[in-house]
Amino acid sequence: MALGGRLAKQERSALFDSFSGDLDGVDAVVIARSGERSGDDPGAKFVDDVEKGLTAGMDATSIPVVGVERTDTKPSHVSWYRDRGIASVDDVDDVAGRVALVFALAGRPRVPTA
What we know:
alpha/beta
């Protein structure tokens, strides 16, 4: 998906609210999780499987990946990002958090773990 290709072109309308131009890959990826899901949530396994697939796919590239969360995010997702080898920035809704995000995205490219 991050590198472009047939699947990215096929699924772009399902993934993006609006889009113009060609999807030939991305320079970086920013992940913002929506929250923890309980085992009682019927969609929890589906979302977990999608997250696993997406993070595994990103892990196989050298594209920088940064996880973000707002100041009021409860519970924090920093450990979730860390467990997957993803850099993280908290307080992305503050100026310092946005600056940290810029530096994290401009930093060392992601090195595949496999």
